[in-house]
Known about the structure:
Shape: globular
Order of helices and strands: HHHHHHHHHHHH
Radius of gyration: 36 Å
Structural class: mainly alpha
Number of domains: 1
Strand content: under 5%
Helix content: 55-70%
Number of helices: 12
Largest sheet: none
Amino acid sequence: MTDQPWVAPGAGPAAAPGPPPPPPAYPPPGHPAAAPPPPTGPVAYGRLDHRPGIIPLRPLTIGDLYSATLKAIRGNPGATIGLAALTTFAFLLPTTALGAWLAGRSSFSFLPDSSSAASDTLPDDLGLGILGAYLPAIGQTFSAILLAGFLAQVVAQAVLGRKVSMGQTWRATAGRVPAMVGAVLVTLVALVLVVAVTLGIPVGVVAYAESAGGGSIGLYVLLFAVGGLLLLAAGIYLGTAWAFATPSIVIERLGVFGGLARSARLVGSPLKGPFWRIFGLRLLTAVVVGFASSVVTVPLTIIVFIVLVATLGEDPQGSTFLVLNTVLAGVAGLITGALTTPFSAGVDSLLYVDARIRDEGLDVQLIQAAQGAAPAPWPTPSS
């Protein structure tokens, strides 16, 4: 007997036996079996936000808008709060002084003069006192025009990671001041025309009805209600459609009507586009800024009331109250103008950048500019 395996007759020699097969891959006792590999599919990558400056270069959220505005203010205190304080002071000092002088010229008294035959009539110079009391608000309005331009320049550079000084900001925006003022004047003229149409027509109808001996109170109320709603709608439209006029004039170096047209195109119509989103964000910002301003104005108002009550018995002249009210209005305007106006103007400028990102793909150009592959969409400020 041999150990050779049996081979069929006529077949060749048998092949040498190979190695035995490996044992099955069972896990050793006490160890769990290996889990099967997960099914393959598309790989999910995290979103990469390019952020060369104060904002991520993508469509912005409300958190992005507010945090970036604060970053721009903190990173450029001289060009924001510093310029805001100087500009507001430059406008409020003469308007407050003139307003206080006009208010002091009024002969209005809280207590009637029984010896005068005309004690039941208001003095002719009361209008001067009221005008003087409102002059600081007019000065603050014009200072806000310049501040909007300053903040547009600061924000535009901060988006690219650049810091600017007070002098750089002024040199970059000084030549745009006439166009900015012109855009505001055009807006005011448009609003006056809207008021004349929406309220003038009801007044004319009522006057005609009264002269003809007809009409009713219900009709008059309806006419003025419709006129008021039309006025509100027109004010919302103009205020929102032309919200980006100043950033367009400063950043894109456009003229008055070019800036207004550019703003209207970026905002879009109320029927489509980002119109209502921009309106809502600006309204929310106005509420936030108004609340912050009330922290200053409410205590000052209380002080005016206390002083008025304390001095009314000894000095019943209304001019004293008007003068005091004018001075405190100037002080409150200086504080709120330096602290809150940069925030609201900065939010408007970032909304302008966001509108261009969403509508024109500005983020791509900004990314290329940050990488040195393309020029910046706006010029670098001179030193």
